[in-house]
């Protein structure tokens, strides 16, 4: 039996690629030095998989940014504003591109040409090392379905109509790969798991029929992942011309099993994704072996056409448990990072072929049993409290309009009140203080003194700028999820469990392994210290339960919503303690609420119901005079605006500028919003300092669709990644714009 890995993390076990990229971008190292790091990483990844016995090893999954950008370069479709030429390809592929330009097409006049030979070059590179790989390409239909019209192109332009223009380039790539000696090629077509219309499904049929003659003589795998493949898409997929095998996510696509058992075509390869590529739990090998044996009858017992695979690329997991010597040994036995998952895939393939490693399976079974029975996983009091939540929808007793009136009497804010989102710049000195405290190089007393000095500096700056509702700047926090996870029970943390977010940005998600509770207050000390430094309202700053859930590796032994309710109860306790301590404005960030939305529309309502309910649980017990804020970013919110309203927050600050003010369109279309709202007036992801006039113009656009008495003025997001030389003038201009508008509105009255 054969084994296959869909893809592998590229940042390196200790973020080697991140540091090499950023050094190159800063001009501290050469392109040759960067490429040396990249070459060494690729070689080690291929060797690791080869040594582990993997038969189908991927190539062209390595990237300096991401595979969609690499595909854009391959097709010569880099946005024109980059003045792209073939000569500039290397520098373009090794520069920090803005996230939002990666996949845009200029409409019917878009010109495509075979420009980047990366897929072929990496195949040859691996072959020279003695490793015959499966080159991986983003499938042509998925590429277009993930694209968007560029600025100036009609939003209704059918991007799928560009298929005839890109297929000739795919043919050239295929021809080069064949000439280089490739025997297999993998097309990633994950959009097949979406709710596709019939004309979109027809595009798959058309594309692969067109490619069939070019693919002749090659084995072709079409890979899907992240969810079930719907029945119509399954039929389209398994009928594609010239395709040898089909890959399925059988972890998040368990219903696909039924389709495979009843409709899988004979004579084809089945790549069974039974090892989870999106979480860090050790595979239940015995259970996976049962699944695989049930599939063996579909493709033929004893034949080599059942291939054991990962559910998706391992890009979404941490790299290697070997780099976690300090992790609790019991918890560590329950985990498998990418390197361990490669071993699991091969162990399952060998077991299926009658070469079961009894010791390995026995050790795995013991770890599974330990996790199920460990007293550190279960907290009966937490389970009971979470179960009791089901009897109520946890709404505040008074409607938002009455609450806002009560809050205004207490807070006495001007119209168009100004605030920021939470964090202020994290300086090198500040990071040094936190690092030295963690390493026990400075005392707690010295640490508290340093952090209080930083808070005082941030408070004074905001007062000098004349901001209305202040924040303490979060100098004590490393990360908005990790900071809370470190103070909650049921969480574990890694030293090197980094995962690529985008570009060179990496995150280190906490691991939720057990029932969640709050042993003691988490933020009250710092919030009350900050409030004592000013007479202006000081926001208490919390991360919401849905964001903590979605930005963690979550336990897989109970439904996600149950874990979310447990986190919500812990945050509720914190909210109520902040209120008792005199904090009258409390922000509960839900940056990742939209991010957790399932891929299929039929599952949206259930997710949004428990996610929004979890948020309401956190603040249902506060007085009317306590103002609850939330913040959202990194998403398009128009399609979930009614769920956002249903969160029943008093004020929502929301990303707007970075997404070209798309948010305002939902209000132009007639959606009524009665709570306070602060669509961001400038993009904090750019070092550019917006002028007072530019910000005033943005506020005027907002006033055209929103009532004056509910509008807040704030940046798009937190200021942690910016420098004070950028933050101070930008906030000065923001406050000046708000004051200018107040004067104009007063004159108009």
Automatic annotation (TrEMBL):
EC numbers, comma separated: 2.1.1.14
Q: Per the record's keyword annotation, is Amino-acid biosynthesis included, yes or no? A: yes
| GO function term, MF aspect, one | zinc ion binding
Active-site residues annotated for this sequence = 685
Q: Which residues bind L-methionine?
A: 421-423, 474, 589
Pathway, according to UniProt? Amino-acid biosynthesis; L-methionine biosynthesis via de novo pathway; L-methionine from L-homocysteine (MetE route): step 1/1
Asked whether the UniProt record includes Mitochondrion among its keywords, one would answer no
Residues annotated for Zn(2+) binding in this entry: 631, 633, 642, 655, 717
Catalytic activity reads: 5-methyltetrahydropteroyltri-L-glutamate + L-homocysteine = tetrahydropteroyltri-L-glutamate + L-methionine
Q: How is the cofactor bound?
A: Binds 2 Zn(2+) ions per subunit.
Instruction: Please list the cofactors this protein needs.
Output: Zn(2+)
Residues holding L-homocysteine: 421-423, 589
Q: Where is the Cobalamin-independent methionine synthase MetE C-terminal/archaeal domain?
A: 416-739
Residue ranges constituting the Cobalamin-independent methionine synthase MetE N-terminal domain according to the UniProt record: 3-84, 108-297
Which parts of the sequence bind 5-methyltetrahydropteroyltri-L-glutamate? 18, 505-506, 551
List UniProt keywords, sorted A-Z.
Answer: Amino-acid biosynthesis, Metal-binding, Methionine biosynthesis, Methyltransferase, Transferase, Zinc
Sorted alphabetically, which InterPro entries does this protein's record hold?
Cbl-indep_Met_Synth_N (IPR013215), Cobalamin-indep_Met_synthase (IPR006276), Met_Synth_C/arc (IPR002629), UROD/MetE-like_sf (IPR038071)
Which superkingdom, per the lineage?
Answer: Eukaryota
What is the similarity comment for this entry?
Belongs to the vitamin-B12 independent methionine synthase family.
- Check the record and name the PANTHER family matching this protein: 5-METHYLTETRAHYDROPTEROYLTRIGLUTAMATE--HOMOCYSTEINE METHYLTRANSFERASE
Query: What role is this protein assigned?
Result: Catalyzes the transfer of a methyl group from 5-methyltetrahydrofolate to homocysteine resulting in methionine formation.
Q: Know the name of this protein?
A: 5-methyltetrahydropteroyltriglutamate--homocysteine S-methyltransferase
Give the species this sequence originates from. Answer: Sesamum angustifolium
Q: Identify the taxonomic lineage of the organism of origin.
A: Eukaryota, Viridiplantae, Streptophyta, Embryophyta, Tracheophyta
């Amino acid at each position: 039996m054969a084994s296959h890995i869909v893809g592998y993390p590229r940042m390196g076990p200790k973020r080697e690629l991140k540091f090499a990229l950023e050094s190159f971008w800063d001009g501290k190292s050469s392109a040759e030095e960067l490429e040396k790091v990249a070459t060494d990483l690729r070689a080690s990844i291929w060797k690791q998989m080869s040594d582990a016995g993997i038969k189908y090893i991927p190539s062209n999954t390595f990237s300096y940014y991401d595979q969609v950008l690499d595909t854009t370069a391959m097709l010569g479709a880099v946005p024109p504003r980059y003045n792209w030429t073939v000569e500039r390809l290397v520098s373009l592929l090794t520069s920090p591109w803005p996230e939002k330009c990666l996949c845009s097409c200029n409409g019917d006049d878009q010109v495509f040409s075979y420009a980047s030979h990366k897929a072929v070059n990496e195949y040859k590179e691996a072959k020279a090392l003695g490793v015959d790989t499966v080159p991986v390409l983003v499938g042509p239909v998925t590429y277009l379905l993930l694209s968007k019209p560029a600025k100036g192109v009609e939003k209704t332009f059918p991007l799928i109509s560009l298929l005839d223009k890109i297929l000739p380039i795919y043919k050239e790539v295929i021809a080069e790969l064949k000439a280089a000696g490739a025997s297999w090629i993998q097309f990633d077509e994950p959009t097949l798991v979406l709710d596709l219309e019939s004309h979109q499904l027809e595009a798959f049929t058309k594309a692969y029929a067109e490619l069939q003659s070019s693919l002749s003589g090659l084995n072709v795998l079409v890979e899907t992942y992240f969810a079930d493949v719907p029945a119509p898409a399954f039929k389209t997929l398994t009928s594609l011309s010239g395709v040898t095998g089909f890959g399925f996510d059988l972890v998040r696509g368990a219903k696909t099993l039924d389709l495979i058992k009843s409709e899988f075509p004979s004579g084809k390869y089945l790549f069974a994704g039974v090892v989870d590529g999106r979480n860090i739990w050790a595979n239940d090998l015995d259970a996976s072996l049962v699944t695989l044996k049930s599939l063996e009858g579909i493709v033929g017992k004893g034949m080599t056409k059942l291939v054991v695979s990962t559910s998706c690329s391992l890009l979404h997991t941490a790299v290697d448990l070997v780099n976690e010597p300090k992790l609790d040994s019991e918890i560590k036995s329950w985990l498998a990072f990418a390197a361990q998952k490669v071993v699991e895939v091969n162990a399952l393939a060998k077991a299926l072929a009658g070469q079961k490693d009894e010791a390995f399976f026995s050790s795995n079974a013991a770890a599974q049993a330990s996790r199920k029975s460990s007293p550190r996983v279960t907290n009966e009091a937490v389970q009971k409290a979470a179960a009791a939540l089901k009897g109520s929808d946890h709404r505040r007793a008074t409607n938002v309009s009455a609450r806002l009136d009560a809050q205004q009497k207490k807070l006495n804010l001007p119209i168009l009140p100004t605030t920021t989102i939470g964090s202020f710049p994290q300086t090198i000195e500040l990071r040094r203080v936190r690092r030295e405290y963690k390493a026990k190089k400075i005392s707690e007393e010295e640490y508290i003194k340093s952090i209080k000095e930083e808070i005082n500096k941030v408070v004074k700056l905001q007062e000098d700028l004349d901001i209305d509702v202040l924040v303490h700047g979060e100098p004590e926090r490393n990360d908005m999820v990790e900071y809370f996870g470190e103070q909650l029970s049921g969480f574990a943390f890694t030293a090197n469990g980094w995962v690529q977010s985008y570009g060179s940005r990496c995150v280190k998600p906490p691991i939720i392994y057990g029932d969640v509770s709050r042993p003691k207050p988490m933020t009250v000390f710092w919030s009350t210290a900050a409030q004592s430094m000013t007479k202006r309202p000081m926001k208490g700053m919390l991360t919401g339960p849905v964001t903590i859930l979605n930005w963690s590796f979550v336990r897989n032994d109970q439904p996600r919503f149950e874990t979310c309710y447990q986190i919500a109860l812990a945050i509720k306790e914190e909210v109520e303690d902040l209120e008792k301590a005199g904090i009258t404005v409390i922000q509960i960030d839900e940056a990742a609420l939209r991010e957790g939305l399932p891929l299929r529309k039929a599952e949206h309502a259930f997710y949004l119901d428990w996610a929004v309910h979890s948020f309401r649980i956190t603040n249902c017990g506060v007085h009317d005079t306590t103002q609850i804020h939330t913040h959202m970013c990194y998403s398009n919110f128009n399609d979930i605006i009614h769920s956002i309203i249903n969160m029943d927050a008093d004020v929502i600050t929301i990303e707007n500028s970075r997404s070209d003010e798309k948010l305002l369109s939902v209000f132009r279309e007639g959606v009524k919003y009665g709570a306070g709202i602060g669509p961001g007036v400038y993009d904090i992801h750019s070092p550019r300092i917006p002028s007072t006039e530019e910000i005033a113009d943005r506020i005027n656009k907002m006033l055209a669709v929103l009532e004056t008495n509910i509008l807040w003025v704030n940046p798009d997001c937190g200021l942690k990644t910016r420098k004070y030389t950028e933050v101070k003038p930008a906030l000065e201009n923001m406050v000046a714009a708000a004051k200018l508008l107040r004067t104009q509105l007063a004159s108009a009255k």
